[in-house]
Design a protein that fits this description.
The complex is a heterotrimer of chains A (about 325), B (about 300) and C (about 325). Chain B has about 300 residues and is an all-alpha fold. Chain B contains 12 helices and no strands. Chain B has one domain: MetI-like (MetI-like fold, Orthogonal Bundle). The N terminus of chain B is likely disordered. The longest helix of chain C is centred in the C-terminal third of the chain and has 38 residues. Classes of the chains: A alpha/beta (about 325), B mainly alpha (about 300), C mainly alpha (about 325).
Chain lengths: ~325, ~300, ~325
Amino acid sequence: MSEPILKIENLVVHYETRTGVAEAVNDVSFEIQPGETLGLVGETGAGKTTIALTIMGLLPQPGGHVIQGKITLDGEEITRYLSNSRRETNKNDKHFRKIRGNKVGMIFQDPMSALNPVYTVGEQIAEVIRLHNRVSRSEAEKRAVEMMETVGIPGARFNNYPHEFSGGMKQRIVIAMALACSPKLLIADEPTTALDVTIQAQVLELMRGLRKEFNTAMLMITHDLGVVADICDKCAVIYAGQIVEIGTLEHIFNSPCHPYTRALFDALPSLDSDVERLKSIEGLMADPMDLPTYCSFYDRCDRKCDACKAGDPVLKEVEPGHFVSCVHYDGKKEGEA
Amino acid sequence: MAKRYTPAMEKLDRKKVRNKSAMSTSPAKEAWIRLKRNRLAVAGMIILLLLILTAIFADFIAPYGIDEQNYSDVLQAPSLKHLFGTDNYGRDIFSRVVYGTRISLPIGFICVFLAYLFGGILGAIAAYYGGRADMVIMRILDIFQSIPPMLMAIAIAASLGTGVVNLVIAISVSTMPARARIVRAAILSVKNSDYIESARSVGASSRRQLLKYMLPNALGPILTNVTFSIATAILTVSSMSYLGLGIAAPTPEWGSMLSAGRSFIRTSPHILIFPGVAIMITVLALNLFGDGLRDALDPRLK
Amino acid sequence: MLRYILKRILWMIPVVIGVLLIVFTLSVITPGDPVDNMVGPDATVEAREAAREEMGLNQPVYVRFVKYVWGVFTRLDLGTSYSNRQPVAKEIMHRFPVTLKLTLASVIVALAIALPLGVLSAVKQYSWVDNITMASALFFVSIPQFWFALMLLLIFSVKLQILPASGINGIRSWILPVAMIGVGNVGNLARVTRSSMLEVIRQDYIRTARAKGQRKSVVIFKHGLRNALMPVIANVGNTIGVSLGGAVVAESIFSIPGVGQFMLNAINSRDWPSVQGGIVVLAITFSIVMLLVDIVYTIVDPRLKTEFQARAKTKRKKGAAA
């Protein structure tokens, strides 16, 4: 295997608030190969967006802290640029500024508010181009028009303002902005959640095409297994800040192991079987302010046993490239229970 | 259908909604708790309370009478005998400042009450009926507001003459359009919200709707504005009196006291200091309380 | 867009008529006979009637009003002063520049101080800079203007004797009046700027701009400030209104020969046409300023522009269909 574009090792991120410390990300490790798309699936508050913001060096301040772990982006360790003191902030921000928009492009959840209402969309795309390339204003504008055409928006609308576009079109513009500098990695944080279903499909289709065209690796953050099936090569299921299962698309979809992953699938409507009611997962996600010392999914698990309370489960390889963190899969793959 | 949720998330959301509705059974109580936690707002409240008590018990607090003149003690600097010194008639400034609370506070309240009463009626009609009524009322208010409030108050006071009643009329009328707008905006903001829809769908009559649903929900921003308005009214009362268009000389109104003391700026500046400090403390207390009220009623703003 | 501005300008006509009606009504309801102030109490009946005739006061009220409005619109004639029988417009016009300069200077100075402070406070929320700025802003909005002026006089003119106490000669004499009118505006505008900036820097597009690799300071000034300015611009109109009122008080305290002082003197001598004229001129000034603010607002906020274009388009379509 070649050098991964993104390698995250044992990442721990906490938010310090007035009421306590929220353990948002707990010991997360994964990697993304060039051109590969990893789906990161989990509920709201599971720590997905926090991981994305950590990679961008944009954790909410004050409050967000990387406690430990290493993030390597394109062979360069970026976690060392995370500032610990106020004095270093400016210097470190300079390193991150070279990464943001250049090596890593990011697409945010809500296209409605992601664009600045007082500048034209063209200006906003040209801004990122001029930031990372030594080009003239007119050259940047020319490239911005090209980017707009690439994402399916007529270049003639360069001088239009964001409010003159529909939600789907705005998201296309955000995508154009994220890809304008041909980043090695594209982070998409629930890019379709805020869109209508028909538009969702169009935007996903566009992203699939562009990923090939730009040969970009992608981190697709979503809570929608349908999106994962549509566009990802690998999939990581995250629960309460921990990866509970990770593997290829086949691994996760054909032989899901972790009870949480299974529950997610059980909660999906199925076309073949005539189920009266969908199964839902009972209870609430563990409070990140107050995580148990044992498996965080214990309270909601339908396979809980005494062994579960013994300690925090660790990721174990159940088949080549397929990892699960659950005591029931301690080293060996169980039968189709 | 804009969002696709996993059932687990939906459940989470439902739970959130339920918690919220359980808590919001008494938003007033909740706001009160937030208000009590805000130290500055509490400070403002305490100062206000002290001022009101001063006004009520002025006779016991003031060591001298309002008009008690003593020609042997003219223009005395502050001392133990006269805490804030004496003025050119030998009157005790401390006593006069204390009696001043009986004028500024009630007049401030009354001006705002009247402005809100008449402005509120206009604003409510405009917001509730909308359409042509709204347009006509708003255009008329536009015209009134094209004269800056202070100038309007000066013009009215100039026309009607000095005195407490005329001053109250001047300030109430000049601030009325702004209050009408606030009431209109507050009602409009709740008029189209979901709970009014649901009230309408169960067949609530229009007057009942207005009273039972709109008013309590529109009250938040109005309450905050009332506090700030009283502060402004007190400032205007004193400015007008200073200009000689408000409350005339023998009355211990803070502004007119400053106006009378103006000529002694070179010889006895202490006359000019304390009445001004009194105005500032009163206004400051109202502003502190208003800030706290705003944050408590709308916690999103912080 | 142009249609909107044109409409807005045309709207000035009813506004002016409305203002004239208000001040005229006030002059009618004022107690006492204006003739008393023109000829003195000892004048004969004939002299009184002659004065009444001369000022046109013997005509019915509505005729007087129509004549007044007509005079204002056709000849910029604001009437004749009761006390010196001079045209009011002339008296006011040579005093007006001082009042306007005083008002604008204080608003500009207030903006120049309040904007950076408000932005700094928002960016460094809860820091000591923020706390000090907001505490002083609260004091500034709570200080009675005229008292602040008296205190400034006391300190700078009486005690230190470094600034003149009255009149308007040279730059130094502007400092105290501008400070007095501006103090509340600084507090108010700083508070508005801060809260609007706080609102804006939480927006998603700020994060988007950061995610592009833009400098934090550039993000704040380029992407943040332009959006945060909207409520501030909306507030500038009101600020100017308040400052016009403040200028009247300032002119009285610092004996500045402006429209305000002229009006206050006229009030004391019960010279209504002069009072009326002063109010009308200042109200029209204010209306023009509000008009300019509205126009600036539509230029700065692209959303409004499109709204007007869309509205114009649908209207045209409707017209075509009919």
